[in-house]
Amino acid sequence: MTGLMACLGFGSSAAAAESPDPKAVLQALRAFANTGTVLHVGAHPDDENTELITWLSRGRGFRAAYLSLTRGDGGQNELGKDFDEKLGVLRTQELLAARQLDGGRQFFTRAIDFGYSKSPEETLRLWDREQVLADVVRIYRQFRPDVVVTRFPIPPGSGGHGHHTASGILAVEAFKLSGDPSAYPEQIQEGLTPWQPKRVLWNSFRIGSAGPGGLDGPVHRQDIGGTDPVTGEEFGAIAARSRSMHKTQGLAGFINRARTGPNEQTFMLLAGEPVSGSDLMDGVDTTWARYPGGEEIQRLADAAIASFNPTDLATNVPALLDIRKRLAALPDDPVVADKREQLDLMLQSCLGIKVRTLAGPDYVPGDGINVGLSAKSRVPVKWTVRTWDSPAPPPISGFEGTLTGPSVNIQHDFLGTVPTGQALTQPYWLRGEGSAGIARVENSALIGRPENPPTLVIRHYFEIQGQILGMDDEVSYQWTDDSGARHHQDIAIIAPVSLAFESDVFLVAPGASKPVTVEVTAARPDQNGKLSLEVPAGWSVLPAAQDFKPGSSGNKTALTFTLSASATAGAGKISATADVGGRKWSNQRIELRYEHLPVQLLQPPATARLVSIEAKADSRLVGYLPGAGDSTAEAIRQLGYSVRTLTGADLTPEKLAGLEAVVIGVRAFNERDDLKDALPGLFAWVEQGGTVIAQYNRPSNNLPPLGPYPLSIAGPAPANRVTDETAPVTFLAPDHPVLNTPNRITAADFEGWVQERSTYQPSQWDVEHYQSILAISDPGEKQPDSSLLIARHGKGHYVYASLAFFRQLPAGVPGAYRLLANLLSLGE
Q1: In this model, does residue 6 exceed pLDDT 60?
Q2: Which residues contact residue 278 at a Cβ distance below 8 angstroms, ignoring those fewer than 6 apart?
Q3: Exposed site from 33, 235, 417, 560, fewest CB < 10 Å?
């Protein structure tokens, strides 16, 4: 109910409400009278047409939602170095923030964004086509859309990205299956029922009837411009604010790019019945008459709208209760269930009922929990808390109170206990280890949800004119920021101790040893225990276990072990486990803090990657100029170098003196304002014998020079990216030092790479000065031989490396470390 709750002023919880805006309540009542449902389908966060969602939800009052097949796990992060599953968590929250603005709801499948894909065939193979299709069918059956609108076409059209086109393909395939009771019968056994949408339309991003690649079909055009009836704001302005929430993708500037006035959009039929009238919902009964006995509900809703009293909201309650009584007689149905919740929220607003259920920020399984309840109402009602609808503490029995008016706020505290078997807080799709393309979700009831259900829920009951109004409120923690604003967040279930390795990757030479430190942080006092490490066969760690006594809550204890690598090169994983009172815990505590999002808590297994290769282990100094965020600096430290973080002001021959090399972070030429003017000094240092390793950047019209000699990354992404991580590698300069010193690079060093080989390779370069070292192309294609270019500039070396080091190094790929060690050694 994201959109409705936002309109009524409830935010993310039905508990916190200021005085509702009568115009918002009236608009919610109009939406209640409308049973139409539209599902918008795309592949990633930021694919969605927020203008369309705003018009559908806020303008037309439809149940509108966006289904993003992935959570954007494989994309880039413009704000930090959190990638992969962490980035997926962040982008999930950005989508939820966007939906709070445009009024839509949010769904996902289990598909994982594995990075740029050039074909839907590759995408559907890596995703596990059958499982993701099952998820789309499940969401059709759950949400029951009358019309499905894709953001991308189906073949012979192309969405410009394999994930994009695949989203259109699956939307159409699910349309053909969701109404078939023999398709995915396990869903029927779970209680879902078949559902057949009326049509699937492609919301074309091109003008005209013909699509790309010859795709053609009946076309409907619709103006989706307009003004929000509650706020008076144009839909385009709301949509721009919604889209600007995708800040990790660099879209914050969309807030200044609102489209105002008329906004004609094109919709091409992909499946089902064509639009024969003037509206994309042509042929769909969007009234209550679609339900047996619903005509009376429609009549009552229309009458309530016509007689709505905005000056005294309580006078609207009898009409709403009359509708509620009729609604209760209808058979259960996902739409009906939504409408019942919608109606109860309107009643809550008109009665002025406010509830709050508060507790502490976090609890360890077995902890006692003190929950504070409070409620008030503008009119007299009886308040009862009969049960704790949660798998956690024991039921509450017999608490009752009478709310007699706006000045009376009844409060009640009670104690419970968090069960010892309560699961730790962790996004449900990250609880199990999935594959490269699809997450593992044990509880199928969670599939499709944007995030976890609330940890604990209290159900409040209010008796009004003989009817019982039930209201769920999640138990939350309230805190106040520096500005005095109050915030609420879901309480967390945490372990008594959390564990953290000092690094995500440990690099050890074959047969050698190095110290490994694990930090134990106590969440509660006196959590004494024993810590042990587990390593792969052939590796060893001493001592076998160590005692820890962190003492008071929040204290940290650092325990150091000696890790010895196997005699042969390779890779593996090390894990840590703490035994506290006979129960074992093996989890980290990671907080993702971004200003525009709620704090996200992750508690993944406490593990680190192991890499055994021959690498120099001296203390020479390397400079690192950060870009948009990567873990290259830590990888350099693991190779045995010391690292100094640089700014643009440091890029002079004088300030760079004594450095072995300078490494430039990913997309630094895109992101940094202090780089362009500093480049002459950096290039002068190279002339004097320095080595610079520049990592990949994105094409842009405003890029500074990418090197001391002409170098361009302009051109379409498919032509300049190698997305197959197994693509063959040809050595064009086998005698070059970068392939021989100190490590001899062979084809084996390109085994085990993840997600992609190379990103935004140069399309043109000065062949007189830059030497091409490698030739890599996707199967059946020919990309430029520019994944690794090295130029001699005076006495030094300038390297432009579009190889995906930023993916390989944190993944512990041995060959990437060996090649990076060679690059850092070019100046010797």
Answers
A1: no
A2: none
A3: 560
